[in-house]
Design a protein that fits this description.
- With about 425 residues, the protein is α/β, with parallel strands linked by helices.
- It has 17 helices and 13 strands.
- The strands form two sheets. A seven-stranded parallel beta sheet has the order 3-2-1-4-5-6-7, with helices on both faces. Strands 10-9-8-11-12-13 form a six-stranded parallel beta sheet, sandwiched between helices.
- Helix 14 links the parallel strand 12 and strand 13.
């Protein structure tokens, strides 16, 4: 008999506009023969912003029933609070572009582990009773605290896409900041680990993240359940295409590690690359704010913003992908996507962490800016580009199949 599973999500994972969307989407796709799926997502606007996407997802997955819940408080105070918070974040990024920013303590005091609103907790518990839910599956750190409100007799699973304490520790690693900043990160780590230990099982995307959680004090069972890409070029060959010196970065600005990585690359690598060859272009794929796009075009040459693209394979063709991430955990879906299309990748070690791929054979890895520039320059050699793309494609096809993911998740729900 199929389990009745309630998924608690922060958004509708369609269309596939980010790695997080794709990981959640494929996790749902493999549940067709495993569970009866009910998905509740939250939003903070008075009108559901995902209504169209919700209909599209239900058309793709008829076995999924979706529900939305509005967290917004209909008051002018809440409106102005959200507006001021957005302005503060935009100003922080403008300062960063101007080289004026330091670390904002508010980034660390907003840990994401605050209790869920009472009205949402009541709604979820009503769903669990009325739908006879067997398993509640929660995803994304900022929803982690809902476990405090769940009944004791329902199984609770948390899918951890990115360890928050690891990301925060990496952000502060090389920064000269007051001890109070570091204490904030330590407090958040205690919150994160404590909440995880209230779940019956934790799912992570790599063995490395599993070990980090064990070392940090998680005592509940941890399952390693990798993510997969759903749009794979199944042809055997990787064409020896001409490269027009286009570098691609895939990821939305809203995910802080993406913004940090792009800014690091532009400040530290881009001038040196353009000095070697003024024909280099950087194409950034994903949703970025107009403020950031205008500012970066003013400061840096040959930077393009493609926004969300319907066909990622077309957008990546004849390019080299860069993954200059310096913070984060989990796995980078963008590397899996590149591998699906046979696109060569140059990444930092953190960017490639957790993936079952081999350095130099499947991917090029560098830490320092000068090494990052050097590795990109080495891909002027067409044979090397083809070899890297072909090897990565083979590795992804062998290790990250949808069939393997389905078997993996079946064991979890059993």
């Amino acid at each position: 008999m199929k389990k009745n599973v309630l998924l608690i999500e922060p958004f509708i994972p369609y269309p596939l506009i980010s790695g997080g969307h794709q990981a959640i989407y494929n996790g749902i796709a493999i549940m067709k023969d495993i569970a009866n799926v009910h998905l509740v997502y939250t939003h903070t606007t008075w009108k559901d912003p995902y209504a169209q996407e919700r209909r599209q997802l239900e058309e793709l997955f008829p076995f999924v029933k979706t529900y939305d819940f509005c967290l917004a408080e209909k008051s002018p105070v809440m409106f102005w609070f959200k507006l001021m918070r957005r302005i503060r974040r935009m100003w922080a990024k403008i300062k960063d572009n101007l080289g004026l920013s330091g670390v904002d303590i508010n980034d660390y005091r907003s840990s994401g582990f605050a209790p869920q609103p009472d009205k949402f907790a009541i709604y979820v518990n009503q769903m669990i009773r009325n739908l006879k839910i067997d398993v509640v599956q929660v995803e994304m750190c900022f929803q982690q605290s809902i476990v405090l409100d769940l009944p004791k007799d329902v199984k609770k699973v948390f899918v951890h896409h990115e360890l928050r304490f690891v990301r925060e520790e990496l952000r502060l690693k090389n920064m000269d900041v007051p001890q109070s900043f570091r204490n904030e990160v330590t407090i958040h780590k205690f919150e994160e680990i404590g909440l995880l230990n209230m779940y019956d099982e934790i799912v992570v995307l790599s063995p490395i993240d599993k070990q980090k959680l064990i070392d940090a004090g998680v005592v509940k069972p941890i399952l390693t359940s990798f993510a997969v890409v759903n749009s794979v070029d199944k042809s055997e060959s990787v064409e020896k295409r001409e490269w027009n010196h286009v570098l691609t970065f895939v990821g939305p600005e809203a995910h802080d590690p993406n913004y940090d990585g792009v800014m690091w690359f532009l400040k530290n690598c881009w001038p040196a690359l353009l000095a070697r060859n003024s024909g280099y272009r950087l194409r950034i794929i994903g949703k970025w704010s107009e403020v950031t796009k205008v500012r970066l075009r003013e400061i840096y040459q040959n930077v393009e913003f493609a926004g969300f693209v319907d066909d990622l394979g077309v957008a990546l063709a004849r390019t080299v992908m860069i993954v200059p991430l310096r913070v984060g955990s989990g796995i980078r879906m963008k590397i899996l996507e590149a591998g699906a299309y046979g696109i060569p990748v140059v990444s930092t070690r953190i960017g490639a962490e957790g993936l079952m791929i081999e350095e130099s054979e499947d991917i090029l890895l560098a830490e320092e800016a000068k090494d990052f520039v050097e590795l990109i320059s080495e891909l002027e050699d067409a044979d090397k580009r083809v070899k890297l793309g072909y090897n990565l494609k083979k590795r992804i096809a062998a290790s990250y199949s949808i069939e393997a993911l389905a078997e993996n998740r079946k064991s979890l729900y059993a």
